[in-house]
Specification:
CATH class of the largest domain: Mainly Beta
CATH topology of the largest domain: Methylamine Dehydrogenase, Chain H
Strand content: 25-35%
Structural class: mainly beta
Order of helices and strands: EEEEEEEEEEEEEEEEEHEEHH
Number of helices: 3
WD repeats: 1-39, 40-82
Protein name: BRWD1 protein
Helix content: 10-25%
Strand order of the largest sheet: 1-2-3-4
Keywords: Repeat, WD repeat
Organism: Oceanodroma tethys (Wedge-rumped storm-petrel)
Number of domains: 2
Region (Disordered): 239-267
């Protein structure tokens, strides 16, 4: 196999360069002389994440598609900490990205199963305020293309970037309470009645019919200045026609006999 570099990172003070190679090794180089200092062994698949510590020049983090996350001391070429991202009943989850916090006390990772992993010192209680499962209700909605080859949301016929902010749901599509909906950018100051999604029954891939979020409330569309859906437009048109008929009937009745003789038509 021809060696290929998949990722490269400088350490905090630029004295070292770390490269990830497709033979699953990490190599630590002296950035001034180009000398190879260490081979870091531990990964079993390709590595696409290398993150240096924000102020400790000795520390480098690596993560890869094998589900392994390592904290290395690159000056000694040794492994400091290791975590394997095993998911119960599903094998391991490939780690796609990692970032240190500015104070260097925590780091967060995302994996191929949609999980956010937070590591650090201290108690995890502050992170228990939000549900374990958080998805946008539009995450897996089908897209189509219009006559101009632009992408549209299949259900609303709108460009995805012009749609109102989505709702937060669990893995089964059930909406979270309104206090969590305010976590979505664009919904921070909405009233409670504007944070209740429109529900409907949707058939899943295995044929089971479940109740899920199917769209936004029309009041949200009004606030955002967006075009309503085709169905909403038809409903409003019918309501307008009914209101016009009612108004005409009332006008006819008011211009009829004023002495109580005769019966006005019912709207």
């Amino acid at each position: 196999m021809k060696p290929k570099v998949t990722m490269i990172a400088w350490n905090q003070n630029d004295n070292y360069v770390v490269t990830a190679v497709n033979n699953h090794l990490l190599k630590v180089w002296n950035s001034y002389t180009g000398q190879l200092l260490h081979d870091l062994v531990g990964h079993a698949d390709e590595v696409f994440v290398l993150e240096t510590h924000p102020f400790d020049s000795r520390i480098m983090l690596s993560a890869g598609h094998d589900g392994n996350i390592f904290i290395w001391d690159i000056t000694k070429g040794t492994k400091t900490k290791h975590y394997f991202n095993m998911i119960e009943g599903q094998g391991h989850g490939a780690v796609f990205d990692c970032k240190f916090s500015p104070d260097g006390q925590h780091f967060a990772c995302t994996d191929s199963h949609g999980h956010l992993l937070v590591f650090g010192f201290g108690c995890s209680r502050p992170y228990e305020k939000i549900p374990d499962q958080m998805f946008f209700h539009t995450d897996y909605r089908p897209l189509i293309r219009d006559s101009n080859n632009y992408v549209l949301d299949e259900q609303t016929q709108q460009a995805p970037h012009l749609m109102p902010p989505p709702f937060l749901v669990d893995v089964d599509g059930n909406p979270h309470p309104t206090k969590y909906q305010r976590l979505v950018p664009g919904r921070e100051n909405c009233a409670d009645e504007h944070l209740i999604p429109q529900l409907g029954y949707v058939a899943t891939s295995d044929g089971e019919v479940v109740e899920q979020v199917i769209g936004q409330q029309t009041v949200d569309q009004d606030e955002q200045g967006l075009e309503p859906s085709i169905l909403d437009g038809m409903i409003r048109q019918l309501q307008l026609q009914q209101d016009q008929r009612t108004g005409a009937d009332q006008e006819s009745a008011s211009s009829g006999p004023q002495n109580g003789e005769g019966t006005p038509r019912r709207g």
